[in-house]
Amino acid sequence: MKVLKINAGSENFEEFISDDFGAVSYPLNYHLKMKTYDEPVYSAKNDVIISAGSLTSLGIPGTYRLIISGRSPQITTFFMSTLGGGSIELVSTGFSALHITGKAKSRKIIIVRNVKGKLSVEFKNIKSIPDDTIKFQKYLIKNYSSKFKGLKYRCLVIGKASEHTNMGAIHSVQIVNNKINYGSEGWAGRGGMGSLLLGGHNVAGIVFGGDYEDEKLFNPDEL
Q1: Dist CA 85 CA 136 (whole Å)
Q2: In a domain? residue 192
Q3: How do 175-176 and 203-210 pair as beta strands?
Q4: Mean of all residue pLDDT scores within the chain
Q5: Rounded Cα gap, residues 172 and 156, in angstroms
Q6: For the segment 154-185, what is each residue's pLDDT rounded down to a tens digit?
Q7: Using CA atoms, how far apart are residues 115 and 112, in angstroms rounded to an integer?
Q8: Contact partners, residue 7, CB within 8 Å, separation at least 6
Q9: By the 8 A CB rule, do 184 and 191 touch?
């Protein structure tokens, strides 16, 4: 699995290949290895890992779910929360996992873009979180869509409850021609992953996309 590890505190990043092949095994084994169960739940070491399954690029319906993992602020143990769609845009960055660690000094939007093999990761300030997630999505599209002209991209945003509760969700929606495709909304609503992303890392949103196309192992029409 190819991983992009992003430190929200230092604003550095690194890419590497993990021996863990699965979208669940990588985050689970990482948290066990780092003994994050010994840390406070909102520790900057309680990393949030956003991953795609190995079948995503094959074009098979039902394989596009995005998996968001970390220690849940609600039950304080390792937890996986999923949302429909999103994996295709993640794979278009050339990575199967975005690994968020460290804590920013102020609230940030992280922008990941990979075009023609050139990777860029940017950190943008955001003063306040919009009242609802659709407004938040529109804010990101308005401000950052110019970076993704002609590309597949997606925005992940936290819900407003992430500021004050341990029940905050992460919202995503398909974007077509820089407009929201209503009816395609997805929520990683279980486990409080939005609360963890904000409380543990001070990250309010992530925008990612690119032009990378994974080599298909076989023709899905033959299945």
Answers
A1: 18
A2: yes
A3: unpaired
A4: 92
A5: 5
A6: 999 999 999 999 999 999 988 888 888 888 88
A7: 10
A8: 13, 101, 102
A9: no
Q: Is the distance from CB of 72 to CB of 79 less than 8 angstroms? A: yes
User: Across the chain, which distance is largest between two alpha carbons, in Å?
Assistant: 51
Please give the structure tokens belonging to residue 127. Answer: 């003063």
Q: Express each pLDDT in 180-223 by its tens digit.
A: 888 888 899 999 999 999 999 999 999 999 999 876 544 556 55
pLDDT, tens digit (0-9, with 9 covering 90-100), for 95-122: 999 999 999 999 999 999 999 999 999 9
For residue 52, give its domain range.
2-212
Task: Tell me the pTM.
Answer: 0.93
Per the structure, the count of domains in the chain is 1
Kindly state the DSSP code that residue 93 receives in the 8-state scheme. T
Q: How far, in Å, CA of 119 to CA of 219, rounded?
A: 29
- Contact in structure between 201 and 44 (CB atoms under 8 Å): yes
Token pair of 129 as six digits: 């979180």
Cβ–Cβ under 8 Å, residues 13 and 121: yes
CATH of the domain at 56: 3.60.9.10
